[in-house]
Amino acid sequence: MPHAAIRKLTLTAFRSYPSAQVRVEDGPVVLTGPNGAGKTNILEALSFLSPGRGLRRAQLGEIGHRAPGAAGEAPWAVSALVEGALGEVRLGTGHDPAQEGGVRRCRIDGEPVPSANAFLDHLKVLWLTPEMDGLFLGPPGDRRRYLDRLVLAVDGAHGTRVNGLERALRSRNRLLEENGSARFLDAVEHEVAELAVAVAAARLETVARLAAEIAGHRDDASLFPFAELALDGAVERLIAVHPALEVEDRYRAILRDNRPRDRAAGRTLEGPHLTDLSVSHGEKQLPAARCSTGEQKSLLIGLTLSHARLVASMQGLSPVLLLDDVVAYLDAARRTGLFEALARLGAQVWMTGADPSAFAALERAERFTVAPGAIARG
Ligand SMILES: Nc1ncnc2c1ncn2[C@@H]1O[C@H](COP(=O)(O)OP(=O)(O)OP(=O)(O)O)[C@@H](O)[C@H]1O
């Protein structure tokens, strides 16, 4: 399976780096160094080669390099030479608070593109970070965002649908609050329902594909438990029991009936904007939230590998994987299991850890030592 790979990464005034460059032949790429050295910052820079706010969900203004004691927001940029689906391209992104307000600019081979959605034609970047450790215990909104990223990696139009639905819901909520006319409400609910069904259907389809991928790879399950996935939401329930042609009308009827209730609440109380992704430990038949911390982490690793395989099989090109502080956490057998699974996957993977010995078993790795503001090979 061909794979996408970053060949050169250039950071300009990005977080702890005034400037930095990393060249890699292939991978796996291993970044080690003490706590706070700037390892995650490199993965975060790579995560901006995909749509969204990166793996820390950062505000654009907090990213620009700040010298100690300096105030204000600084411009920053990330550029990467990528061997992608359509050959070699240069993807660039960045933000200049003096010029661009709240959006980051994106370029492909120097030409401006409307958004980072355009990067998806060349590269998919998937990540697993320590911040995701609380995913199963945290609020549903976190799992919904995780779910939408799973979908976006296999369905580039999903981001536009989700954003469109959020906008349409805001219009409906505003109309309800302002006691807007029934005619306007009918029109906006028509739009909400159309987008809601599209969002829910895309999520259900990806979850079904992912479940099939997981079922087909139970061999990895002894090391990383397999996950069972389900979606719980009003429109998903309608899709499960009614013919496809009826779903939009039925959800529109729910919206119409709920108008008084939603007006009182100040928001729309049913729809895919409230859907939750439930994950269970397949062997134990136990909700992930009730599994041990280690089991939850292993479930997340298993899910990441399955998702990467799904992306690869659907796109014909393996994604780039970012694994932040995952390896040090694993026992020796799971570490080896992970390295073997990654080798089978054939994806370029960037891994971080404080301790280089955690990566000793990895063959042919490209190793870098990270110190504050600097990255050195070896
Ligand atoms: N905008 C910024 N300007 C300058 N430095 C920044 C900026 N944002 C974050 N930093 C610095 O980056 C460092 C954190 O880097 P990072 O999270 O990449 O470390 P790490 O090597 O992954 O550490 P750990 O092993 O603890 O996870 C901190 O020292 C932080 O102060």
What does this structure look like?
- This protein is of the alpha/beta class.
- It folds into two domains: 1-124 and 317-378, P-loop containing nucleotide triphosphate hydrolases (Rossmann fold, 3-Layer(aba) Sandwich); 133-315, RecF/RecN/SMC, N-terminal domain (Glutathione S-transferase Yfyf (Class Pi), Chain A, domain 2), CATH 1.20.1050.
- Helix content is 39%, strand content 22%.
- It has ten helices and 15 strands.
- The protein has helices spanning 39-47, 97-100, 140-154, 158-177, 182-215, 234-241, 244-257, 259-265, 293-315, 332-345, and strands spanning 5-14, 17-23, 29-32, 76-84, 87-95, 105-108, 111-113, 125-128, 227-232, 276-281, 286-287, 320-323, 348-353, 366-371, 374-377.
- A six-stranded antiparallel beta sheet has the order 2-1-4-5-6-7.
- Helix 10 links the parallel strand 12 (320-323) and strand 13.
- Helix 3 (140-154) packs across helix 5 and helix 5 crosses helix 9.
- The longest helix has 34 residues, at 182-215.
- It is globular and about 65 Å long.
- The two termini are 29 Å apart.
- The mean pLDDT is 94.
- The structure holds adenosine-5'-triphosphate.
